[in-house]
Description:
The protein is α+β, with helices and mostly antiparallel strands and 327 residues long. It has helices spanning 3-27, 31-58, 79-102, 112-118, 147-159, 168-174, 176-191, 214-225, 269-272, 321-325, and strands at residues 60-68, 121-126, 131-137, 195-201, 207-212, 227-229, 233-245, 249-253, 259-263, 280-292, 297-307.
Amino acid sequence: MNIAYLEKRIKKTEALLDSKKKQLAAGGDNFALSLSIHSLEQHIGDLHHKLSTEKGKREKEVIELRLVGADVNNGSVPLDLLANLAKHFSGLVFAAAAKFQNGQDMAGAIPNEITQPINLRFAEIGHGSSRLYITGDTSPDLFGVSLLENSLSGLFDLLNQDMNQGLSEQVDNLGLRSSHSLAKFLKVLRQKHIEIDIRWTGGNEQKHAWHGRRDKIQMLETLLDGFSSTEPVEVKVDGIVELISSAGKLDIRNEAGELIKIRFSKKMYEAVRPFRMGDTVTLLTNEKTVFNSATQEKKKTYSLISIDARSTPSGASLLPAEESHNE
Length: 327
């Protein structure tokens, strides 16, 4: 079984489980239906285990950076340029991974418990042109969730977002610290008059690519530099679950019909995972306003603190609120 197949199987099985849970809720006690639900839940757990195993076999993520410019067109890269690019690229990956792990931007040094499993390394310079290859360990958890994989997916989501439609959601996903490291990475390229192609193929064989022309590099750098956020305030969110993703995304539709996109940390994935589309939940979140001084764009963002016990599906285990606060 390959990774793409397992991910599709998990989505289909979870959709079937959602349907059966709705049937049970609408029709009352039904032993056969309850047994089927229990069997599907066990099957989903088995699929997650297989997904983790397959991603573990993958071992490495490989990112290609192809540099184009007068200083790098001879197949070599000046050492100071290489050092600066490596520093800011590793900074943006580690900061994004810390955001996915903890649900919020981290101040200070990124701890070894995050950086060591990712194990970013400069692998080689490709022959014939200035292609830099960077590798990192996939390191999936028991559910097949990889911090490096999520960080790279978030990076390409931001790079390929239509800048005319705003970047607030992608910046919130990756984190302000990571986004500012990306801006520094782009600044190095701009100052050296270098264009770049970035490529990565995910475990599900999806190909990700971004071509950074000089004008695009300068525009994105300016936009990312302009982002800031307010201090978080605690806000309760009530509504219906519309989406849950292992990448830390939880969409809730409130009574007013508004769709609220909530981020949750990797540590809370096991607590969130039992919920299905259509469940009614009450959540405590941190609300922030992300602001871009360059475009005057303003957007509220939410990160999960804890789940009200009354929202708990049968058999689910939740993190206590005090542990959630300390993530």
